[in-house]
Amino acid sequence: MTEILAPAGGREQLFAAIRCGADAVYLGAKNFNARRNAENFEEESLADTVAYCHARNVAVHVALNTLVMDGELPLLEAEAASIAESGADAVIVQDLAAAKLIRECCPGIALHASTQMTVHNLAGIRMLEDLGFSRVVLARELSFEEIAMLTAKAAIETEVFVHGALCMCVSGGCYLSSVLGGRSGNRGLCAQPCRLDFNNGERGHALSLKDMSYITHIKELADAGVASLKIEGRMKRPEYVAAAVAACREALAGREPDLDTLRAVFSRQGFTDGYYTGRRTPEMFGYRSREDVAAAEPVLKELSHLYAAERQTVSVEMALSVFEGAESVLTVSDGQNCVSVGGAVPEKAVNRPTDRELAERSLFKTGGTPFLAERLDFSSDGGSMLPVSELNRMRREALDALLAERERPAPKPFLPGEKAEIIKHRLPAAPELRLRFETYGQAAPFFTEDEADSPLSGAKVILPLGEIASNPESAARFGGRLIAELPALIFPKDEEAISAQLAKLKALGLENALAENLGAIRLIREAGLRPYGGHGLNILNSTALAEYEKLGLAEATVSFELPMAKISRLGGTLPRGILGYGYLPLMRFRACPIQKRGGCGACPGSGVLTDRLGKAFSVLCSGRRYATLLNSLPLWIADKEISGADFLTLYFTVESPERCLSVYRAFQENMPPDTERTNGLYFRELL
To answer: pLDDT at position 449, please?
Structure first.
């Protein structure tokens, strides 16, 4: 059965979700969840919350879906222990360190891959299967055709967002909030700067999408085999949760959902299904207007009535015995739990004895409880009578006792992790320099007639896969020093073509390839090449480094969200590096913010967005598959003290060939910049 999965940012939202028909809820404990500013659930209340949900046949998924640093791993383990103690059904994770912890320490809890893991292709799903996941929350940017194909071929369950806010960036790949304000979305503290007024020259709010709504497509998704239909909104008010769950419930039952009320309670100039249908046009964009805010007030009171009372979803059977001279007994069973309550000794009936009709009239009044009486086994001598007040009392006591039994905590086992010794990483005297070019032409000034005299002699060079395919001589020029960079986003229809390109280039001598997501690692391995990890893998701790080493990485670039002091303390044997220069890629998106009303036809493949302060952010298109937002200032740390890195990558994107060479020379000499720069997050503490 396809479940409706609702957000529960706090107790009121939890009640709204359950009482309006959610089959499962997802919520956060106090730490390590992607909505740390929601009310969330403290350790002492989590067990009670899970018990409350389970008593009403509602599953609980706990979000543990942020990136963690080495110093936080003990707290992460403590939180995992409290989740196991609560008896929760599943844990949603992003970090491979969290995945390892849950897999090894909480064997009775299902492991779900957060949408923050950016899994959007079949190769990525296969990696999750190997890592012990039982469900993947698919990227929100997929079309129905892609969702259906992945669901049909996956050996694990798929979960799909069907309503709520759309991040502009593919989840897990956004660094806008952290780089601009020090508040990381990957750490659960996104400040949503994308909702501010970025201008593309033709329209404003060019990084703000309307809320998604696939509610009218729910039956189609269920028929395609999607296991879970997820509603976004752990920061939203309970009336929103009530309206969204009620609409999903109606649509799944084949009835007409109330989308007008749902739009009134919260929208950003309406809804969009652009990703679902594949129509990724400017009509997808919108922002929260004054009219949207004003529309909410009239419907809030009406919506609060939807979750004012318990939803009767737990079927029970009752048995009542009424015999003269013996204590009456009421037994209630839910099929697993059974309770009995004694009552008064019945009196001899003067007028009408207590019969089945009278008993059912009192005992079946289960309103205000989660129980629904379906059958009464009635036995009587035919001449005895119990007062209605006594029947009502017995019913109340029996149902209270049954609910207490159902709410009894059922902890899952927790096996404390072994305290593995962290191997101190051995570093070179100075990190080696390597160069990443957006185009092969950017490397032209580095070429000399005698390759041994080239500035690039001995340095590793990273080029996009498509650039190598278009310039096959690069494979011969750089030899074993060449690393092919796979696209940061590889959507399902492109997997086969990527694999074919890798096989062709391997025949030309290519040995190495760089992956920015889990699926790319698998494609590289299947092609028989050596995989390197890019910054997009979001590595922030030693355990994740070790997990990626097990997956076959030859080396990894750690996240540029990790402060230098923590980079220097990363342990393990896997070589690691950092980005030392470049206009950092802050966002990857499938809905292009620079697309004009006429489509992509006349677009040169690049453009500029301007923020409200007049700063310019470049946008680069990758073969009309996705686009990347670059920071307005380049990262430059040539003159800074660098610790903990085996290598330093100069990440060239929009620079001229001559500029690439001058930057390289400056880094060789540890020179300060000749222009305005940013130090990124390396020398400040990330929240």
So the answer is: 62
